[in-house]
Hints:
- By secondary structure, the protein is mostly helical.
- It has helices spanning about 30-45, 50-85.
- The protein has a domain at about 50-85.
- About 60% of the residues lie in helices and about 0% in strands.
- The mean pLDDT is about 90.
- The protein is built from two helices and no strands.
- The relative contact order is 0.05.
- The chain starts with about 30 loop residues before the first helix and ends with a helix.
Amino acid sequence: MKDEYDFSQGKQGAVIPLSANKTRITIRLDADVVHWFREQAHTAGGGSYQALINGVLREHIRAQNGVLEETLRRVIREELHTLSQ
């Protein structure tokens, strides 16, 4: 070990830059929820439990959008039917 180190060219922050489409957040989840996702990642042969959580949230959003789309289609059909009478 050296007695002194030169950090004049050092940079602060993450060593690996984050992807432009990712946002770092702090979120509090129940311990059993985190444990379940970690177990799922481990069972799948490794990987990121955070990516699994992201995938589940994304699928939930898609499902909600599908519900909204179906509701809109139903309302439009009903309105068109009412107008044609």
